[in-house]
Amino acid sequence: MKLRTYGFILVIMMGLFTACSVTKEGRSIKKSINGNWSLQTINTEGISGKFTAKVFNEADFNCFIGSSWNFISNNGTGSYTLVGGSTGCSTLERSIRWTVYEPKDGPKEFQFKRLDEKRNPMDDNNGFRLNVSMLDDNTMQLKSAITFEGKPGNIVYNFVKK
User: Fold this and answer.
1) In whole angstroms, what is the distance from residue 71 CA to residue 38 CA?
2) Span 23-161: which CATH code?
């Protein structure tokens, strides 16, 4: 009787582990993202005219240009640092928790949650997902889908590895 119970528990635990595991491709993406990056440019696709937006519930997207990002793949933590200046942006360092989301029928996505000073999730425990549209050893491009003036578009974040 006890052997059956232990066997059942083992099967359940193996199922949970398999359901939560990251694929080989997901692990490769995490490994490639690992390290220090600079957000060089932010562009838009499908949007014409002047566009401004607050991104990641943090600041105007222009404040993120030149920001430094650090990703630690073995524990899924990291941070980003905004440098203030004459553009009306404030200096800020924010801790994050991140991973690669792997939907069954779609492209891989980079997802993260902002953390407060006690390392608790902010934004009602909601986070942000961006499509990984390009990634190699030195560059990364992430896209965030938006709607502007009733039309679909993207905010495109272009990173360079430091």
Assistant:
1) 11
2) 2.40.128.280
